[in-house]
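step 4 of 6: structure.
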Amino acid sequence: MTPFRLAQRHSVPASTQKRAVVLLVLLVVFGAAAVLSFTVGARAISFNTVLTYLTGSENLGQTDAAVLSQRLVRTLWAAMVGAALALAGAGMQGVTRNPLGDPGILGVNAGASFAVVAGITFFSVQSTSAYAAWAFVGAAIASVLVYSLASLGRGGATPVKLALMGAAISAGLGSLTTALILQNQNALDSLRRWQVGTVAGARLEDLTPGAFLLLIGALILLSGAKTINNFALGDDVAASLGENVALKRLLMALAITLLVGTSVALAGPIAFIGLMAPHTVRALVGSDYRALLPLSALFGAVILILADTVGRVILPPQEVQVGVTTVIVGVPVFIYLVRRAKAVNL
Amino acid sequence: MSVSLTGREHLTQIRRAARKRPHLVLALLSLTLLGALAVRVLLGSYTVTIPDFFTLLSGGNLDHARGARYIVMEDKLPRAVLGALAGLAFGAAGAIFQLLLRNPLASPDIIGISTGASLGAVTAIVFFGLTGFSVSLFAIGFALVVALLIMLLSAGDTGAGNRFILMGIGVSALASSVISYLMSRISSSDAQTATLWMSGSLSNANWNRISILSLTLLILLPTVALLHRYLHALAVGDELAHGLGVRTHAVRWGFITLGVLLAAVATAATGPIAFVAFVSGPIARRLQGGPHSLTASALVGAIIVVLADFVGANLIPSGNLPVGILTGVAGAPLLIWLLARSQKEGKA
């Protein structure tokens, strides 16, 4: 098994005080990001108008109200998906002991989006919860494939083997997805927008089932934070600490799959948040998953809200989808992580 | 005494056979490629007899079938030839990367070279409204820029192989998200063109394309053949190769450039035909039973593309499925099987 260097480097226990400071700062940044997400866009809206809207006052122009209700849904949506993906990424890093854990890199996003496209093509599924069900199955199959194939051979599932296997599975599923899309001309138009990863078309009525599923996944993962800490010590040590390693790992994997599958169903495949958020938080508060998981979720929400907001104004008059902005910010983080890690550990 | 002698003779025979086997396999692969080409050109939805084919090839016309000339000379033959040439290039490029990076999973499809080429093509189609040859030039240019970026990012450490792969995956993610962004912006008809190009298709094969690709390959493939012993020396390990007097750094970057060029010119001609570069090397090695052979891998690549195109054009009910879709769909399970086998044997 690969030593989890990135974790060890920061394994000095951070004081509760430091965690509280990080939490406070993140909450402030989250609030600021939410305000930006309300005010910035094709139609700029003043902070006062936003306050009026949020306090439920009636003195508001029709247009402003419509724009703001759309932005409210969009912000909630981005916060949920960002938090879910960050949690999933942190969980993957802990469960596979692989610093490069991310739903996009490990091919889980590709599995989920292929399943959704297949569901649309063959069974004309339409509701978000049906998307989520299909995405969950696809994500589960892809994660099992990637992990089991990467574990074969010398050295087990090393980061480079996991990443390569994820890329290979993504490529294979990508051409299957293209095959389906090419057969179905009508689907191409809507699918090529969804496939980028976007929160732009968010609707309020889809929010509840998605939020419910994400909450279940998040709760399972958060309650298993201590177990993930023990995983970091190695399977043998974890077992001697009284963990049922196989069962717990399966449970965690299910929670991660639920988070990824639902996120993909809600917003399309969005990569690299699962990489960025946990690693930044880990550098600040250390690798105790009891603090790392919730703080990563908060930071993931902040990143996705900001990515969405920046995407609205960066190339006017068009919007750049979050799926693109997160990758453009995330790849440098990935490159930094790879360059910093010792070659032996890859 | 006589028993041990026969035993020894037996051993020599086996050794001789083993030494002969690569050549035998190469000969068989060449024959198979010829057979595949014949199947592609002669059989299918419009069958042509061999004498008729030669009449058409020498410029004659068939009295009983006026359209035959067009179908064979402007559709079936160019598709077969372009497919074979692209397959040769993909197969050779894949084997080069696998040998160089000492990883059976390393191939230009995965480490971003093909994605770079696709980005170039989509840019050309979307921003400049280009078609045909100029799209290819963009594809080659972008593939080279992406490769250069990966090389720069992965430079400066002894474990360059793994780092190169990971940087490739990162850069590939970047390029493909830009592609998705562009794709979501463009008109439906442009999106059709771009999707078709990116799935890898031989449907726009013509003699112009073939002459460009074959001229480039006439320069690249002999260069690879001349230098390939350095590559094999490198494959045993950097230190050992250095001890043998090989300038490891120069050889490594030289071959990365050659591999990128091969993958890029082929991608430019046909679009990225998925998994051909990926599976050709392992299949060739399995057939030969010996070390990697670039020639065998190139031949396997050509056979795969030609046969897949035949299946896609004739045996799929909806008709004319792009060849890259077929190789992608068939390649993924094949790849998984190959990896499972080779990793169990500890070759990963």
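step 5 of 6: annotate
 - DSSP finds 13 helices and no strands in chain B.
 - The two ends of chain B are 43 Å apart (CA to CA).
step 6 of 6: archive
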